[in-house]
Amino acid sequence: MPVLHPDLTVWCRSLALLIVLGFGLTQPIAGQQAWAAEPYTARHEQVLGTSLDLVIHADDAEVIEQAEATVLAEIDRLAAILSTWDASSEFRRWHGAPPAPRAASPELFEVLSLCDLWKTTSGGAFNPSAQAICALWKAGAQTGQAPGDNLLKQAVQQAAAPAWKLSAENHTALRLNDCPVTLDALAKGYIVEQATVTTLRRLPQVRGLVVAIGGETRVAGDIDHEIRITNPFADADNAPSIARVTLRNRALGTSGGYRRGVHIAGRWYSHIVDPRTGQPVDHIASSTAIANTTADADALATIFSVLPVAESLALADRLPGVACLLVTRDGTRITSQNWQQLTTVSNAGARDTTLAAVTPTEDRQAESTPAAEKDQKEDATDTDGGAAWDEDFEMLVQF
After folding, report:
1. CA nearest 341: which of 316, 371, 361, 365?
2. Please, are residues 258 and 232 in contact by the beta-carbon 8 Å criterion?
3. What is the 3-state secondary structure (H, E, C) of 36-61?
4. Which domains does the chain have, with CATH numbers?
5. Strands, DSSP E only, in the chain?
């Protein structure tokens, strides 16, 4: 799933997280003292192909300015290493070089290691080599014909083979085949994580920090932060969220294939493919993962979009510090056992939802009323006429 491509703006808009940022998107720093007790909020466009949103809790204007600059600098530094789309990035140069063990920066080595970890943990549902399969479906959109079974079988076999070999002793990475690979399903989350951790390490005066790029959000420090998760079936930007979760020192990632994909011969295919079958997946409209790091949340959101619901729930329950919220194709919402343990869930003022946690039994029960149907029913009962500003319509930060 593209992470660093400029076209991601469209994709991430459809997967918007509605983050409450207090009293505005930006605030001047210079000369401001009265607002020190309030968090500083800012938005930057065209960061990794989408938008960056910051919330900084600190009492000193100079510290806030330094924190913002540190986040931006760290993002730029890591993008120069990990970008799939920048031909001059370390990853692209390694990817295009003749096969040989090559020294890798600590950051590239760590991301490649994380990709290996999640490929194994997910049983192949997460696979950077799925790029070869995605290319076939993109080509099918151009020709108007879905890729044939033989082509898909070959691509699946190619993607299943190990893409690289890492040497922890020498800190080298060796490409093992010419199958195209991408780091996009994990790199953005990794960048968000490192930008957050680095800033707090360098500036201990910062009490709390929220860094959000696209569907990935990191909340760190001595703060609680509310995140609103958008309804994947809603068209309006100011549509009520399906859930509000409050995080402290946690990360959240979101993914889904309900809007981004290709049309082939009159049929819609999601851009998310199952690397094990070569087929686009469409049983999950939106998946939200909570984890200890943003890199893990990013990868897990992809995995939860691919695996069957029961397998996603089992995986989330098995991994420490992990929880998920799944919205299925028919609008049913399902949460893992740990969802409410790891978040403070609130639906106060959210007219469109009653979020039901899945009970930790063998026979899990999901919400009986599909989300799309519930939204239609509850919207129909809204009779405020639009005469006054509705307090439920918060400022949107589109990713």
Report:
1. 316
2. yes
3. HHCCEEEEEEEECCEEEEEEEECCCH
4. 97-180 (1.10.3980.10)
5. 17-19, 40-47, 50-57, 102-103, 164-167, 172-175, 208-213, 216-221, 225-229, 243-247, 250-255, 261-264, 267-270, 284-291, 323-328, 333-335, 344-346
Q: Tell me the C-alpha distance between 217 and 188, whole Å.
A: 10
Identity of the amino acid at 289: A
Q: Which amino acid is at 115?
A: C
Could you list the beta-strand ranges (E) of 107-177.
Answer: 164-167, 172-175
Hey, which residues does 55 pair with through a beta bridge?
Answer: 41, 210
| Per-residue pLDDT at 23 exceeds 80 | no
345: confidence class by pLDDT, cuts 50, 70, 90: low
Look at residues 19, 394, 24 and name the one whose alpha carbon lies nearest to residue 227.
Answer: 19
Q: Which residues of 223-242 are buried (b: 16+ CB within 10 A; e: fewer)?
A: bebbbbbbbbbbeeeebbbb
pLDDT tier at 258 (50, 70, 90 boundaries)? Answer: low
Place of tokens 């068209």: 235
Closest CA to 174 of 108, 79, 122: 108
Q: What is the pTM of this model?
A: 0.79
**How would residue 351 be classed by pLDDT, with cut points 50, 70 and 90?**
very low
- Residue matched to tokens 């540190």: 70
Backbone conformation region of residue 384, classed left if phi is above 0, alpha if psi is from -120 to 50, else beta: alpha
